[in-house]
Write a structure and sequence with these properties.
Length: 365
């Protein structure tokens, strides 16, 4: 696994390691000189995985130039193609989640299930599309940090101790995830994008990457824009990304895991499985990605006792191939315009003639 490494608590330079990416040089930099990574003064080192899931969170720092002392120095080595593709992380995730799902399966399900090849396409292609969008979003956020917000505010935040920043970053980011996720459900045009994710009918850990790139960009923007705009350190943001990276795989995994009394504080697989449930009572519930208390606070929590979510998907057939799923929202929007549907939020009619929930995707006919 390729790592980004940084020293926390010091801006002194580090000797470079050839397998680490140097953000101070940018993408076009030549490979860093060989050598061991050294400590600079009395400080601790943080390493986070570098691939398409994390790279876009750091690259905009160089895209708009140095941020001076608003964020601590962040150095490392160079990256390779497989870092952006996430091959090493995928292999590690396979080694963790495949046996985990076999030992603690919530539902009987094959490893090589339907849609597996489509999920592989999402995994290896989406990262490039998401990278471009999120670089733009975080670049704007950094410009806001530099040009709009008072320097006293951003410097105060950036100078907070790492261990103070991390929980604040997680709280802010997941609040952004909650509201962007909820918007994706309640606004019909946005639901056409998000329905690609909910099209998965055999839920397991790989369902985490079965998302339209516009969906990912929108939700990551909700999480990362305020973090960069306010001036939180890249170390704290990187820690959040590391936690969220594995949390996303875990909550989709086909495992029996409820968290007991913590289930209304932290998002568990059981909690998120109900979010994907096709049962009417579970629709538009459980939007948080990490802190389930947000759903409790805003009245969207759904976690019935002595019951488990067993059926998943949307209320009509969806495309099954990667390119067709990428095109789906655009075709749905064009079809709606052609039918001259009113723009207000109104229920669609299901195949049985009964009003369906607004969250449901409209058939393309």
């Amino acid at each position: 696994m390729r790592l980004i490494s940084t020293e926390i608590g010091s801006s002194a330079p580090l000797a470079h390691h050839p397998d680490r990416f140097d953000l101070s040089r940018g993408l076009a930099s030549s490979p860093a000189p060989t050598g061991e990574l050294e400590h600079a003064g009395s400080c601790s080192r943080l390493t986070v995985p570098f691939n398409a899931a994390t790279a876009w969170a750091f690259l905009p720092i160089d895209a708009v130039g140095s941020r001076g002392d608003r964020l601590p120095a962040f150095q490392g080595g160079h990256f390779e193609m497989r870092d952006l593709l996430g091959v090493n992380q995928l292999l590690l995730a396979v080694l963790i989640f495949v046996p985990f799902e076999r030992l603690f399966a919530a539902r009987p399900q094959k490893i090589f299930r339907r849609g597996l090849l489509t999920d592989m396409a999402f995994l290896f292609i989406n990262g490039w599309l998401v990278l471009a969008g999120v670089i733009a979003v975080t670049t704007v956020a950094i410009l806001v940090n530099q040009s709009v917000l008072p320097a006293a505010v951003t410097q105060t935040i950036g100078n907070l101790p790492y261990l103070v920043q991390v929980p604040i970053v997680i709280l802010i980011a997941d609040l952004g995830i909650y509201w962007t996720h909820r918007i994706l459900h309640i606004v019909p045009a946005m639901w056409q994008i998000h329905s690609v994710h909910h099209a998965v009918e055999e839920l397991d850990w790989l369902a985490a990457i079965h998302q339209h790139p516009l969906d990912v960009i929108f939700m990551k923007a909700g999480a990362l824009f305020p973090l960069y705009a306010l001036g939180f350190s890249t170390e704290a943001i990187g820690t959040y990304l590391l936690v969220y990276f594995w949390q996303t795989w875990l909550v989709h995994a086909n495992v029996r895991l409820s968290y007991g009394p913590l289930r209304y504080i932290l998002v568990s697989p059981e909690f998120h499985h109900w979010h994907h449930s096709s049962e009417a009572e579970a629709r538009d519930k459980n939007f948080a990605g990490f802190i389930s208390f947000y759903d409790v606070l805003f009245g969207s929590a759904y976690l019935p006792k002595a019951r488990k979510a067993t059926t998943f998907g949307v209320d009509h057939p969806m495309p099954t191939k990667y390119l067709a799923l990428l095109a789906y929202p655009f075709i749905a929007w064009a079809s709606k315009r052609k039918r001259n549907d009113p723009p207000a939020i109104q229920p669609q009619l299901s195949n049985g003639g009964e009003p369906a929930q607004p969250r449901h995707s409209a058939p393309l006919s």
